[in-house]
Amino acid sequence: MPEDQRNLLEDNEDLGAACQKALAETSKALKAFSFYPENHPLRSQILSSAYEAITNLVRHAPVTLIVQRGGFAIAGRPETIESNPMTKALAQELFARELQRLTFLPEVSQTDLSALLSALAVPPQKIAEEGGVAGMLARNGISAVMVNQIDVSAVYTKKTVAQTEEEAGESGAEVIEERAAEAAPAPGNAAGQTSEPGIDQILAALVAETDEERYRQLARLLLKKALPLKLEGNCDRLYVVLSHLADQQADPDKSTVCRDAAHTALQQLILGEMAEHLLNHLEDVDFPAKEAICRMLRLSGPEVVDAVVRRLTASGSRAARKALGTALVRIGVQAQPQLLVLLKDARAQVVQMAVAILAEIGNREAVKGLALTAYHPESRVRMESIRALARIGGMEATGVLLSLVQEGDEATALQAISCLGSCRNQAALEPLLRLAGKRDLRGKLHALQMEALRAIGCIGDRRALDALFKLVRRRCLIGTTRRLEQKLVAVDAIAALGGEQARGFLQRYASGTGELAEAAAAALQAMAQREATHE
After folding, report:
1. Tens of pLDDT along 72-115?
2. Residues with Cβ < 8 Å from 429, sequence gap 6 or more?
3. What is the number of alpha carbons within 13 Å of residue 43 lying toward its C-beta?
């Protein structure tokens, strides 16, 4: 019977919600089976709730659920199952046991469900020894619950299609749609040999494999072999596996499918205790391969960010904080949400670290958060925020920096102008020219105008030349000393902008006498040296 006819509920019922309810209750029951002894009343109570939800789901027809990494789908039906923490947890447990599909028939009994949960509560490596979940159910005479297990070992055991069908028929399991393709025996295995390869053999086979389907099967087989290492806490051995998978993921000669398969296997193995093990290495001053750790953490995705941030905010070691900060930079935008939360931390040191990391990541979505810390009570946080905004750049960040020039205290304004210049922010050119040319009889803007002229020279846009020429030519009767200082800085800025127009202007002044003529001559000499260096 086609699947789209088997998963039928009444039209007015929400199949997705019924599946979500049944899966969430099953997830709770699986935890109860792992935690409570067999005769514990809570275990029976939770099992009854799960059974009630499943019988409600299949009271009209069988339901087949497809196991995915982050949740479930309904086979042959358009309805979706909204994931929640309980369904995600169950999907991960089934995925780790290599279950692809889970089918409940209307005649399912509570004994059948109890047998399924008992099988799933067994550690993955023992499940393999027992012949898989399907075999365990078959030995207990369970036929109203069916599982399709991905038999990746067929890659090496060369199971024939007939053998697979026979085994599936004996166990009551549905024939697997996705059959493992045959592959050449692993090095050292004789043809027809039924023993599975070891982890080192699989890693070697991954390097040589070019067929995408066989590569994915090998990656699943590696996951099956390596998961027991994770459960045993054998982190040193698992580190070697992760290192190989990271190399495979980064190999440009591999196809996207192969690299994704290596990436997925790495993500499955790295989370939890292994991630903490890697962070221990990262905080170890003497550990030499910190960049390799950062690469693995980057591939692990956002799930590992909380652990890194927790250590970053708790560590008293400057070296450890630097290494953890580098890891967050490598993780990149995926770490940004947690870093933005840190901007509201009561500890100025934590805020400053978060600002510096956000600057390194350089994503413009962080500007709104940095615009707030630019007005932080602590001056070191303000200065770090200004540097971050200048480094990130863009219209919004430039607007924040220019508002600091107008509204901030002098130290903050000077820092903002300096950063605009060092980052060669051309959007700031016109505002800085207006500041430099503003009349200031009492000299209140003198320091800011001097810094603005230096920043204009750093920006390097020759559209500023006419305004600078006008400033140098300007005559004044009040504040002549301040004006002369500004003209000298303007001459340096003109030389920094360069070009024939600048050269001609400076040559006319250099032919005269006085401090301005000496400054123009020195500027011409600097221009000549710079041009000779470029040549």
Report:
1. 888 777 778 888 877 887 887 787 777 778 888 888 888 888 88
2. 456, 459, 461, 463, 464
3. 15
